[in-house]
Amino acid sequence: DAGITQSPRYKITETGRQVTLMCHQTWSHSYMFWYRQDLGHGLRLIYYSAAADITDKGEVPDGYVVSRSKTENFPLTLESATRSQTSVYFCASSGLGLAGGLAKNIQYFGAGTRLSVL
Amino acid sequence: QKEVEQNSGPLSVPEGAIASLNCTYSDRVSQSFFWYRQYSGKSPELIMSIYSNGDKEDGRFTAQLNKASQYVSLLIRDSQPSDSATYLCAVLFTGGGNKLTFGTGTQLKVEL
Fold first, then answer.
1. I want to staple A107 with a disulfide (CB 3.0 to 4.6 A). Which of A21, A94, B31, B33 is the partner?
2. How many other β-carbons are positioned within 10 Å of the β-carbon of residue B40?
3. Taking CB atoms and an 8 Å cutoff, what residues of chain A touch B43?
4. Least CB–CB distance from B100: residue in A56, A104, A107
């Protein structure tokens, strides 16, 4: 099916374990993003990618690693999970369109992964 | 630090009334503005985008942008209980690549 999908939808892990959250999009969008959403903080950008093999840090990158070997996939890895990484994680993607000189970037979100670190 | 600010609410309106949601931002040269709706336990979904000063209407929704005053608003006419959700304002700041900066959201409750 076309769209953006995240897996798993729910994950429970223990502190110190490595966890990888998957994100896959079928639109061939150039840009992909990882956010975490916590009460009182809204959506905070963890990492983003402008294209395959191009990634950059967002607002809260510490403790996370990303890769993008293919345009359609953008996995997020918690190398050694901590309780403070308990959150809801959203992946998003956007294309880059130009109209009248303005970039009309619209981000589309996956369904999210609810991660609990015990 | 570029910021997007919203009143967290909750904003309560009776069914059929107009709901007015506001958002201010800190950078004068921002070009693109978005409103997302997020139901509890769900992901954000885009409901409106606006790029130039003035109003943009789509069904019961109207987005208003005033760059001189650095605010963008969302009006929901004939509010329905199904409009009860959190509304996120997002801004694409100039020079920020394709990154959006989100406000923390305003919770809207439409009461019967």
1. A94
2. 8
3. 90, 109-112
4. A107
Residues of A in contact with B51 (CB under 8 A): 102, 104
Cα separation, A55 vs A52, in Å, equals 8
CA distance A80 to chain B (A): 26
Token reading at A39? 């009460």
Chain segment B68-93, per-residue pLDDT in tens: 889 999 999 999 999 999 999 999 88
Q: How far is CA B48 from the centre of its chain?
A: 8
3-state secondary structure of B13: strand
> Which one-letter amino acid corresponds to residue A28?
S
Gap between the Cα atoms of B49 and B35, Å rounded: 6
Residue A34, both tokens: 């990882």
Peptide bond preceding A8 in cis form (omega within 30 of 0): yes
- DSSP string of B43-75, one letter each residue: --EEEEEE-SSEEEEETTEEEEEETTTTEEEEE
> pLDDT averaged over chain A?
90
